[in-house]
Amino acid sequence: MKSITNTFQKTAKYLGIILFVSLLITACRKSDNITQPQDEAGNQSAALSAARALEQSAPADAAKQAVQLDLNSLSEYSRGGNRNIVEIAISNPNFSALVAAVVKTGLAGALSNPAANLTVFAPTNAAFAQLPAPFNNAQNISGITNTSEVDFLRNVLLYHVLGAEVFSNQVSTGRSNAVTIKTRGTSNDNTIYFSKTFGLIRINGRSTVIYPNINANNGVIHVIDKVLLFPSANIAQIAIADPNFSSLVAALVKTNLAGVFTGEGDFTVFAPTNAAFAKLPAPFNNAANISNITNTADIDALANILKYHVTGSRYFDWDLGLLSRIETLASAPSNKLTTILGFNTGWVKGKGNNNFSQTNPGDILATNGVIQVVGDVLIP
Fold first, then answer.
1. How many angstroms separate the CA atoms of 309 and 369, rounded?
2. Quick one: 84 and 207 in the same domain?
3. Same structural domain, 84 and 13
4. Both 131 and 196 in a single domain?
5. Per-residue pLDDT tens for 7-23?
């Protein structure tokens, strides 16, 4: 497998950014089938009630998707393990887009190699349909002729493959990660992140394993409901590109913290929008006022507030627990946030806040962490 991955080292960077932005826009506008409160600052009781309901509804929703797609018919392979990964994918019409992508990118031989020992996270046709053309269905994928698009698609597929067999019970409860066979470009762009809660596995905060442990003779397949896209921008680049974060960017620059989010790292940033900063008194209420701050005490206070929005590791919404206490980079002892889990949204509250803020959108993947957008500034 090493020789195969080394053959495909060119990544179509501009296409990656375009696709990243396209999917981000789509993700912000769509929600999962699981109903949750839509108000941004829900009270603790409502947030906890919604989170506890997920213990039953989330695994049930995944199982329902599996039934609708007739994935249970693949159980015969789990027992026998007498077909390779490609043969199993070909056998079910729900993987026609995946099969077309494997053929188009020249990876069919690698994924059918009897000497291989792989884990493949296999997106369904419905997962591919969420992507922009020409990556959205089998016909369009088969018609791709642009070399850069083929190279990009190949890297996306390699980002779905682990070089060792990993069954669902081998994924640790809580947070973990694994390095894929995609060639590393920027930091962490070949790593996927697992969130396992209530027995349900989510990947990169967005994709759910809806049917695990299809046993092939050269590995194992886990069916997922969203295509995994490797990150192409760091936290700072994402914030700078979005005008809704101009106050946050101004605050990071004013406090000399911007550089922290431009390099390598593994952060979670609960990122307040401009509307969140507007709720604060001057001079902390907008980008222009923040940029003009000269008082050292104000700058120090602002720096500590910003650090209170950052953790030193990645937390996706499915990792946030039930009234968990998450340590931030702010000064102790007032350096912990209270969090409640959710699907593509979660809840977070600072010690000085009266209500929980909903992450909306949540789980924006960056090369050096994850961004959770919040509508309130969190107060230590």
1. 13
2. yes
3. yes
4. yes
5. 333 333 333 433 433 33
CB 132 within 8 A of CB 15: no
Count the neighbouring beta carbons within 10 Å of the beta carbon of residue 208.
Answer: 21
Tell me how far apart the alpha carbons of residues 326 and 328 are, in angstroms, rounded to a whole number: 6
| Residue partners of 118: CB distance under 8 A and separation at least 6 | 1, 85, 111, 161, 162, 163, 164, 165, 218, 219, 220
Q: Give the residue among 78, 163, 83 at the shortest CA–CA distance from 120.
A: 163
Domain membership flag for residue 58: no
pLDDT at 5: 38
Nearest to residue 271, comparing CAs of 341, 380, 361? 361
Tens digit of pLDDT for each residue in 148-179? 999 999 999 999 999 999 999 999 999 999 99
Answer whether residue 195 is part of any domain.
Answer: yes
In this structure, what CATH number is given to the domain that contains residue 127? 2.30.180.10
Tokens encoding 293: 């701050």
Residue ending a domain, among 188, 203, 224, is 224
* Sign for the pseudo-dihedral over CA of 194, 196, 199, 202: negative
- Do 201 and 240 sit in the same domain of this protein? no
Would you give the DSSP letter of residue 183? P
Enter the tokens of residue 166. 């990993």
Task: Dump pLDDT digits (tens) for 233-259.
Answer: 999 999 999 999 999 999 999 999 999
Number of H helices, E strands in the chain: 15, 15
d(CA 297, CA 301): 6
Counted residue by residue, the chain has a size of 380
DSSP states along 94-149: GGHHHHHHHHHTT-HHHHT-TT--EEEEEE-HHHHTTSPTTSSSHHHHHT---HHH
Compute the distance between CA of residue 54 and CA of residue 200 in angstroms, rounded to an integer: 10
Residue with tokens 């699907």: 343
> Residue 303: which of 239, 260, 367 has the closest Cα?
260
Longest dimension (CA), the chain: 71
pLDDT at 26: 37
Report which DSSP code applies to 163: S
Report CA 156 to chain centroid distance, whole Å. 14
